[in-house]
Amino acid sequence: MESRQLRPIYSALEQSNPKHALRECDKLLRKHPNLHGARALKAFILARAGEIQEALALGQSLLDTPAAMGNMHVYRSLSMTYRALARPQEEIQVYKAALELNPNNETMLCDVFMAAARNRLFKEQHQAAVQLNKLYDDQKYLWWMTVSLYLQAKYLDQEAAKVQLMLAERLIEKLVDRLKSTEELRVYLDVLDEQGKYEQMVKVMGAQGQLAKMIANDPDLVTLRISLLVKIEDWEKAMEAAVATLDERDNWADYKLYIEALVASISRGTDKSDQEKAVFSVQANLQKWAATTGRARGARLAQVALSTQLFAAGITDIAESPEKLVWSYIEAFKHKAICYPDVMQFIVAHIGNTKDSQREATLNYYQQQLEQQLSETRSSASQDENHAQAWVTLEKLRYLVQALKGDTDPGSWLAGIDALLAFGLTSAKARKKQAACSDMALVASQRIIQAAFFAYGEAETREQLHSALFKSLCVMEAGIRLNEGNFLLKLYAIRIYLYLSCYERARAIYETLNIKNIQLDTLGHLIVGHGISLGCFAADLELCYKSISFYDKFRSRMLNDIQSVYEEETYSNIQDFLEFQSNLVQSMQHDCTHRYALRGEGLEFGSSKETLAKWKEADVSSIEHTEESLDTLHDNRDTLVMGLLTPHNMKQWNLEVLTRSMPMPGRGWIQAFSLVPQIMHHLVCADADALRTKAAKLATLIDRDALEFSEADLLFARGIVELTSLYIKATDKNDIADHLDKLLDSINANLPEDDFDSQPNALFMLSSDAIRNLSAATELFTYMVSLRHALAAQRLPAANIVGPALSQTRKRALKLVNQLRSWIDKNGRLLIEEQWLNEDACAAVSRFVVESQKDTFAMVSKACTTSWLRSVRNILMHWEQCTF
Amino acid sequence: MSTIRRFRAMDLFRFNNINLDRYTETYDVQFYLNYMCKWPDLFTVAESPADTLMGYNMGKLEGEGELWHGHVTALTVAPECRRLGLARGLMRGLEEASEKIHNCYFVDLFVRPSNSVAVSMYEAMGYILYRQVIDYYMSDGVMPSEYAYDMRKALPRDVDKKSIVPVKHPVHVEDTFF
Description:
The complex is a heterodimer. Chain A is built from 45 helices and no strands.
């Protein structure tokens, strides 16, 4: 009967028509107010519609009616309601209430377990597992119990951890002969590992029979066994195990452990001959493996690692010279693109471990080798891809050696660049899209950028910096034209376009990278927020929404992933999944994107009524931050993908940092831009006390964390503080004059200059701060319009002062922005040719661009001009719409 | 040479050097997690001595009876790490797991015929063209639409090599579901 009555509601839900479903619910409930199934379904529909309080009240009324829980419609709908509302305790309450009516029901007990597991309620999940294990003869429940105990010990109760782990261990001991998979074995190992019982782990892994077969077929466990032997300092057995494994397979982790065991063992010994014997034995094995077909790379790199570590441990007399081994490795593998990343860490480590007096000699050794080989390699590059790749590898090494020598001479960074450009961009091989050629274009671009920052990094020479960076863009775009697949060229091009205030082209390149899903979290920082700072507000907002939708989708689905781990019994995933979820749910990039979205929405223009409603209805409580909440944020942004040729800690050579057009937003920035919407909300709601507190906090933050903000962001945030002061003082119209003047001065000072076209450095101003400052001024003006609307509703006399002043500013802005637009349209490309191409900066590159990349130059020049025009037109349109 | 190990969810934060390659698809997070959950030993990644990710192979198990097999869903190697035999190493890992752990009859995969480098590699590893699948690859704005080669390699359990008797006529996508 009830099913028939509820059918229209289910049908409407199946057709994704919640409004109709709700109408059907109400219709049914008018006739049968106590029909529990309909009430539960209504709670679910309300929860999905965001009517949280109503859904909770309805849910609670059902929970308070124990008999209702015997109804399967209620059971399902109400549990789904609480899942949708992320209220796991109440969800579990539903299951438990139903269990009272159906004691020992396996499905319901499993539901309790899964609800707890999905929500990290480890104690509750353990209790459910205990009950399941007691009632049902299924080994799986014993594992659920064990895993729950382990998770409690690891994440919850430190005091009880010891007992919980012991209990878990005992449970597994009963099963040890019946292990079905390595997944179960891994649980056992985790339990022992958490207790520091490494010897026992080794013993378990040394078992014979089926277990031994399982371990042998699991490459991770084979390596784990060696690492455990190292951990318990059984060096001899560790080395034996490593040798046995390396005889069978070529796995870097095993080489590393082999070397670690050797170095640790001989570091403790004192007998020289024993030390020599041990080292020679390892060296002999490495040589043996190096001679095996297909294994030379691993074994020879292991030789490099061995000598580097022996040097680091102070055992220099037995070790072979690391630099000679490195060079020998380079000679053997320079034709492989991986060669450079392979050796870079060892070169850096060895230099770091070398005394000052020796350091220069070592670097000179590399330099001499490079000089000898580079000219030969250059001349043979056209033979085949291997030779061309060898050249790239040596160029990368030259880059590193220069950086390690502390070379800051722009001339030496540009040395040899003409050959790289010619081969990389104009040779027959380049036209055939040879991968090494686009790598040459990339190295050349990196050299130009590096040289540019050394030559023109200071404030007084920054005009030339832009000229040099423009040339690097020409090189990168030429490289991209030849090989669209080189994503590193694209990443650097995005960075440089943004540095030169060209959002549109940067965004277009970003789109070709097809960045989506998880990449929005790790790579979104490349572009998100830059549109706001460069006048492309709507484009940025669209991207923010795309990212936010990814995060929302993940949040709504992620709980099922943990459930799947238990269902599939692949327990080794649990910790990894928990960590991953926590990193993504508490992602710093998520919060940055969300705040940028709020800024974008703040810029959306509407009538006075709409604007006030927007700020009034804004849910600002969800973006209130504390130091503790900020501490939980994870920075997943991938900056390593930029393919640096030097270690990240070498700041002067870190192109990823140097090419940032604005600081990477961090904790202070997130806090500040969480406060701005809160301030606007309190202002519109006339909550002066909250307003004062928030404005004071914002003022403190922008002083304390000023380095986290771009100049334009600082300008805007300071404006918001000033705007708050104006509002607070607006009870007496005379009081606001000072604040109003300050705000308008701040906006006016950041509009384009009246005589912009006659400025000698107009092109530099345009590509550095002009558009950014104009964007910030535009944003601030928009907020002032909101202020004016709030004053009109609350303090009319003050609004009557603010209004005319804003009109005047708007009129002026329209004139100046329009002038700027015309000026760019008329002069942009012309000035680029005059000032950026013919400058002395990077003369070799200028010559190359003029002589052989005319088309690319025209394209880049047009892309820059079009991008600036797009930004300025957007801003102009915004001012035009910004009426009140 | 690299460290070949199981793929972890945390690797998704740092696989951009592989996935920014235009031929490599970045799927929904749940897609990866589902593979890790269901077939953890068939989803492996190669890590370099410098601790960067070099390439990965996502695989799954499907079919019943004599059609029980390992399937390669995605095999990809970062541009910098090509020409090292890494793809072969990752494939060997999947074949071994399919054979020794899961007792499969064969391993199969789909590949674009235009990807001649990959087709040659699979052929050199003993895979044969089992059948062609019409309209398997849809255009995604980067790559064109294309039919697929369904390639197979028999494992020792398939003593009579029944799984690799080629199908003469092209089939539709729906005919490839297990």
